[in-house]
Amino acid sequence: MKTVVEVKNLTKKFPASAKATAGKGYFLAVDNVSFSIKKGQIIGLLGPNGAGKTTTIAMLLGLIKPTSGSIEIFGKNIETHRSEILQNLNFASTYTEFRKRMTVYENLYVFSLLYDVKNPKERIDKTLETFEVGYLRNRLVMGLSSGEITRLGLCKALINYPNLLLLDEPTASLDPNIAQKTRDFLFKIRRKHTVSMLYTSHNMAEIAQMCDWVIFLNKGKIVVQDTPLNLTKMVSDCTLNLIFDAQLDDVINFAKKHQLNFLIPQPHNLIIKLTEEKIAQVLTSLARSKIKIVEIDIKKPNLEDVFLKITRNNSKQQ
Amino acid sequence: MKFHRIKAITVQNLFHMRHSFEDFVNAFWWPVLDLLIWGLMTRYFYQLKGISGNIIAFLMSGMILWHIVWRAQEDISVTFLRNVWSKNLLNLFVSPLTIWEFLAGTLLLGAIKIVFTLLAVTAVAFFAYSFNLFILGWSLIPFFASLLISGWIAGLFITGFIVRYGLRIQAFSWSLIGLIHPFSCVLYPFDSLPLWMQKIAWFLPTTHVFEGMRGVLAGAGFSIEHILWAFGLNILYLVLSGLFFSFMFEKARETGRLVKLEE
Question: Quick one: which of A299, B57, B97, B172 has the most CB atoms within 10 Å?
C-alpha cells in the first residue's frame, strides 16, 4: 500500500517559558516520534491530556515548526511544499469554529475559494446534506449550537475532496445518532475514495471501531502501537461479575479453593478478576458446585483499560 | 500567490461587512464625526483675527488624510483579529492559504474601502464646510498612495506583534498608531516641533506627505523632494515590516503561539 504520511524522528521542544520545564530550559512536547499512514488507513492517536497529540497534528499541518525530524505527506516535505500538500488535505476539530457574523454558506464559500473547488454551490449543498445540516445554510454561525458547529467543521473538512483527513475529536459534541452517522460516512469515504485519516478521540469505543492501527502517546513519546485488538490483549484481566443465590461461606470457600482474585462488594455479588482462558474453567467448576448462579456478566478488556494501564504505569515510573 | 486564495480573503471581508454594523461605523461614522468636530473648530478659528484661511485648509486636509493611515493599519490588524476572535484562524491556515495571500486579500478590499471613506468624508467636508479636498489636485494621488502604504506598514508591525505575543496586546490595534501621529506633523508644520522630535519626524514617510500637502495648499507647488522621501522611506519600511512580520510568524510557529492565539 502506498504511504501517504511518513513521520520520522519528530521532536518538538518548546522554549522554557511555554510550560513547566523541570529545570531543562525547554519543554519536550513530542519526543522522537515516528509513524506512517498508508493510503486508506485510519490511524488513531491516543493519549492523556498533554501527551503531544495536538502538537503532533499541528506539526503535520505546518502550524508548528518541528525542532527536528521530518514530515512527508504525499511524498513531499511539509516545510517546503506546504500549500501543495494542504490542497489535498483537510482538518476538523471540535476546538475550531467559524466566522460568527457570516452565514454557514458564506463561511463554506470562502473555503471553497481557498481550495479552488469547482462548482462550489453544488459542493457546499452536498456536504451540508451529508451531515444533515442543509437547514442551517443561511443561518449566521453565531446562532448555532456546538454540535451544529462541529458538523459545519466536518462539511468544511470535506469540501476539497481530501485524500487525507486529520480529525481531532470530530464527534465530541455530537449526539450519539449523528456521531454514528458521521463514523459511517467516514468509513464510506475511506472505502469509496481510499481517504486516509488520523483520528484522535477520548472515546475509546470509537477509536476501537474506527481505527486500523492505534498509536498511544504519553509525555510526547510513543508508548505502544498496534491494532486495537492486539492492544486489548495487553490487558489480560477480564472481570466475571456473578449474582449468586447461595450461602456466602460456600462462595468464599469456592473462591479460595480455586485461588481466585475475588471481591464480594454486596451479599449476593461476586466479582472475579481472571484471565480470559480461565473463564470457562471457573464457570464449569461453578456449575458443578452447589452454588446457584442467577446472573453472569463477563467484561473483556477494552481500549479504555489499555489506556488506563499505560497511563498508570507511566505515572508510577515517575 | 494564487488569485483565488486572495479573492477568498477579500470575499470573506465583504461577507463580514454585509452583516456588521461595526464596519460601517469604522469606515464612515468615526471619520465623519471627526470631520464634524474639526470642522466646527476650524470655523471658530476662522472667526479669530489673524488666522489665515490656509490654516483651516491645513487642518481639514490633515485630518481627512490621516484617516487613510489609520484605516489602512486597522484593516490589517482587525481582519486578522476577527479570525482569531471567531476561532477561525486555524481553519484558514490549515488551508493552502499563505500569510502573504491573506495580507494581499485584506489590503485589496482595505484600499477600496478607504477610497469610499475618503469620498464620503470629502463630500461631508464640501457640503458642511465648503472645503474641497480636491484643491490638492493630482498631488492627492501620490499622497493617498504613500499614506496607504504607511498604514499597511504600521498594520504589518502591529499584527506581527499580535501574532508573536497574542491577544494580551490586541489593544495595539487601536492605539499604537497614535504613537506616530504627533511625529507625523498632521496638523502642524515640521518646524514647529521640538528639535528632538524633528530628528524622529524626518524619518517618517507620513511627515513628508503632510509637509508636501501643506506646500501645495500654501501655493508653493508639489514638492518632489518630500514625495521622494516619503516613497523612499515607505519602500524601506515596507520591506522591513514584511521581514519583521515574516520573522514573527515563524517565531509563533516555533513557540506554538500560532496554535494558541485563539485561547
Answer: B97
Q: Where are the alpha helices (DSSP H) in A116-247?
A: 120-130, 146-158, 176-193, 204-210, 228-232
- Which residues, 6+ apart, have CB-to-CB distance to B156 below 8 Å? B76, B103, B238, B241, B242, B244, B245
Given CB atoms, is A87 within the 8 Å cutoff of chain B?
A: yes
Residues of chain B contacting residue A106, judged by C-beta atoms under 8 Å apart = 15
How close is the nearest chain B Cα to the Cα of A156, in Å?
9
Contact B92 A114 (CB under 8 A): yes
Residues of A in contact with B255 (CB under 8 A): 14-15, 18
Give me the domain span that covers residue A292: 237-300
- For residues A183 and A41, membership in a common domain is answered with yes
Reported pTM: 0.85
Q: Whole-angstrom Cα distance, residue A43 to residue A54? A: 15
HSE of A290 in the Cβ direction (CA atoms, 13 Å)?
Answer: 6
Do A204 and A101 belong to one domain?
yes
pLDDT tens per residue, range A230-270? 888 777 788 899 999 888 888 999 999 999 999 999 889 99
The answer to whether residue A306 is domain-embedded is: no
- Using a CB–CB cut-off of 8 Å, the residues of B that contact A are 2, 4-5, 7-9, 11-12, 15-16, 19-20, 82-83, 86-88, 90-98, 250, 253-256, 258-259, 262
Same domain (yes/no): A220, A282: no
Domain end residue (candidates: A198, A232, A266): A232
Whether residue A316 lies inside any domain: the answer is: no
> Which of A200, A232, A264 is a domain's end point?
A232
Name the 3-class secondary structure at A142: helix
pLDDT digits (tens, 9 = 90+) for B20-45: 888 778 778 888 888 888 888 888 87
- Does one domain contain both A63 and A107? yes
Which of B95, B102, B263 to probe the A interface (max A CBs under 10 A)? B95
